[in-house]
Amino acid sequence: MKTKLALMAAVTAFTCTFGQEKQEMKPRIGLYSKKVDSIVVAEKSKMNIELEAIDKNYKDNKISFDEKQAQRVEVASKYQQVINDKINAEQSELELATKEMVRDAVFEEKSSAPPGKYSLQLGAEGLRMDMIPRNLKTPKELLHTWELTASFIGTNMTSKDEPFRFYSKTSEVKRTVYNSFTFTLRYEGQLGGLKSPLFYRVGLGARSDQFSPKYGKVYSQEGHTLSVQEFTKGNLKQTRFNNTYVFIPLDLRFVLNPKYVEFEGDTYLDNKKEQLSIVLGVYGGIRAGTIIYNKYSNEYSSRIVERERVRYGMNDFVVGGKLGIGYGGFNVFIQKDFTPTFNNNAQFTKKYGLQIGIELANVHF
User: Fold this and answer.
1) 98: burial class by Cβ within 10 Å (0-12, 13-18, 19+)?
2) Phi and psi for 69 in degrees, rounded to 5?
C-alpha cells in the first residue's frame, strides 16, 4: 500500500505545483488516480473473500488458530504484491503525464486564452483554433472531429477540350490570383482500425466565385442570352459576376507520416502530431444565386450601383473532383468542375471552373 500512497502524493504534488498554469492536464491526472483506486478496491474485494473463507474454516475447526493467522498473512501479502504490480504497470502512464506537465510549464509560451477554454495557433501551418484543447481529448476522441474551414481560391474558366489550361488568353475572365472562397463545416472520422492512416470527411459548405471580364467590359443578359458586352452607361469603376453554391464535399485523407501513441492498453494513430496528408475528394452542389454587380458614374451622379439577378445562361448544379496535399492546418488543393458553370444560353468559350486553393483557417470543435 506504500506504493499507492507514494503515487497519490506525487499526483497531489504535481497538481498543486502546476494546477494554475496547466488546468488541461487535470483530467489525465484524475484518470490515473481513478485507475489506482479501482485496482485497490477490486483486489481488496477479492482478498476479503479469501479471508472470510479462512475465518470460516477456523470456526468449523478445520484449521488451528496459528494456521488461520499464517494463512491470513499469506493472503494479505499476496494481494499487496498484486496491487503493487498493477499500480507499477500504470506508473509509466503517470510519469508520461507529469513529464508533459513539466515540459509544457517550462517550454510553452503563455497563452492569453482562459485555461481549458480554447487554444489559438498562427504559424506556417495556417490559423488553427481548438474550441476544446487537444490535451483535453483522448487519442480515440481525436480520431473523430468536427471542423469549420476557410479556403481562399483562384478560379479560372477552361474549355471542355482543354480542361486543365490555366489563364487561357481566349478566356473572357480577367486573370487574378484570388477571386473565390469557401466555408465548410465537416466531420472527419477514421476508416479501419485504430492505427489506420485513412480518414473520410463529409460536410456542408458554401462557395462564392467572383469573375471580372477583360478589357473593361461587363456581363450582360439580354433576352435569354448571357454574354460580355461593352459598357455604355458611363464611366465604369467596378464590375464583377458573383456566383454562389451550396455544396456537399466527400473526401478521403491519407496520412503519409503516421505516428502512434499508447493509451489504456491500445495503440492509436496520434492525431495530436502534425501530419503530412494527401486528400482525394468529390463534391456536388446547387446554385444558390448569381448577381451581376456594376459600379459606375455619369454626368448626373458620381456613384451609381446596379445589381442584377442572373436568370439565364447558368447551370443550377455543379459536380467536381478535388486533389490536395497538406501539412498540419495548411493545405493546397486543385478542384475541377466536371459540369459546366454556364449552359448553352451563355456566349462564352470557357465554361468549366478550374480552381487552385489554399486552406488556411481551421476551427476544431
Assistant:
1) buried
2) -65, -40
C-alpha angle 304-312-357 in degrees, rounded to nearest 5? 80
- CA-CA distance, 176 to 213, in Å (whole number)? 11
Q: Which residues of 322-337 are buried (b: 16+ CB within 10 A; e: fewer)?
A: bebebbbbbbebbbeb
CB-count exposure of residue 62 (10 Å: 0-12, 13-18, 19+): exposed
Given a contact cutoff of 8 angstroms between Cβ atoms, the answer to whether 243 and 209 are in contact is: yes
Measured from the Cβ of residue 54, the count of other Cβ atoms closer than 10 Å reads 19
What's the half-sphere exposure (Cβ side, CA atoms, 13 Å) at 28? Answer: 25
pLDDT (tens place) for every residue of the chain, 365 residues total: 444 434 444 444 434 444 444 444 556 666 767 777 888 888 888 889 988 988 888 888 888 888 888 888 898 888 888 888 888 777 666 666 665 555 454 444 444 444 445 555 555 555 666 666 666 688 998 999 999 999 999 998 998 888 888 777 778 888 888 899 999 999 999 999 999 999 999 999 999 999 888 888 999 998 889 999 999 889 999 999 999 999 999 999 999 999 999 988 899 999 888 899 999 999 999 999 999 999 999 989 999 999 999 999 999 999 999 999 998 778 999 999 999 999 999 999 899 999 999 998 788 77
What is the value of pTM for the model shown? 0.65
Burial (Cβ within 10 Å: 0-12, 13-18, ≥19) of residue 248: middle
Angle at 33 between CA 27 and CA 34, to 5 degrees: 90
